Amino acid sequence: MTAGERIYRMACLAYPAAYRQRVESELVASVLTVTDEQVNVREVVGLVAGGIRRRHFEVGRRGVRDVVSSGLVLAVMVTLGSVVVSNAFVLLRLLTPYESMDRAAELVTAAYLIAGLVGLIAVLRGQRHLAVAVTTVFAVLPVVFLALGHSRSGVVPTVSDIAAGAVPLLLILVSIWLGQGCLRRGSWWWIVALALAIGAAFIAGQSTVALVVLTAALLFSIVDPRVATATAATLTAVLLTQLSAIYGPALNLVPLATEGIVLTGATTAWAVVRTYRSTRPATIT
Amino acid sequence: MGHPIAWLPIGRRTTYGVAMAGAMREPTYFVLASLLDGPLHGYAIVKQTAELSGGRVRLSTGTLYGALDRLADEGLILPGPDEVVNGRVRRVYTLTAGGHDAVQAEAVRFARAADVVRQRLDRASARRLGLA
Fold this sequence. Notes:
The complex is a heterodimer.
Chain A: H1 3-11, H2 17-35, H3 41-60, H4 64-95, H5 103-125, H6 128-148, H7 159-177, H8 189-201, H9 207-220, H10 225-247, H11 253-279
Chain B: H1 16-19, H2 26-34, E1 40-41, H3 42-52, H4 61-73, E2 77-85, E3 88-95, H5 97-128
Antiparallel strand pairs in B: 1-3, 2-3
Helix pairs in contact in B: 2-3
């Protein structure tokens, strides 16, 4: 195998696997003939761009409704995943001997952790009813704590806590309404969800980091618009929590709404436009 | 009863007729035009397209195959079976009747657009020369 062929075959990795298996030999043979077996940067860029376009096309041909629905499922997984990750860390910290032994806080954290884990597994295994039940518990838990007059931190939950708790339920209901609600069999989205969940768990209170994550997700949406949809939905929940921490009990709803709407709107619009464009026939340049 | 948000333009598949009611892009036009003389394989299409467009349209292989896939999906071209020539896999693409009609319609559209401008240019020239 010549250096040129090796590089062109590597560039072909940009194509979806099934498509690559079908056309790689023909594609590489053609590019080697065109370039006389030499490495040509324009051809390498063309192959990578062609691969990305093909990925978009394959996602887009399923329709915008499907993309938004899949994105929302991913967002549910990210939200539940970040709950699991962050509560696992809180529980570890609480269980260390140097921390004050707060039995109630430990129990509440463990409850969140278990509920998050069960919800995540339900979404992964395609058990819609269980997923809805668990996310309903999530939505109800802060209200229960509010009624009991305490929370993990000893502070009464704010409106934002309650709203953030309701987000997974809202997302999963909208996704079911759009015709999905759970992860499809054989999907590899759990890998992306895990990565985003770990990121989301560590960005609480950090608007700058949230913006960096958004930018990274927008860049990733060049490959797949479902990630952009998921990020938009996830960031709304994260922003609710962040702004709750910044503004405390005197929550100012104006900046919350502005920041949330701008970020969510921009990301969702980007996802929809990219998907719609990719479904248009004969739009090569 | 349809989906509650079926009225939204979400998830609708565009058809060739709707999408192509506007203009066909130049590379698409020349890819289809290059197949008018008979079936060609990828490399020959790249060469033919460059020739027909006077060197303006230089398709990279990645762009070409993206275009061929879409045109095949829309039924404008027909990919043939794989064949191995000099140890390399290649496949020929044939223009379908639909593809022939599409490129012909586009050629007529281009010709009409050119006629309109040519007539106006002639009138303007005549005015300048004081003939009108």
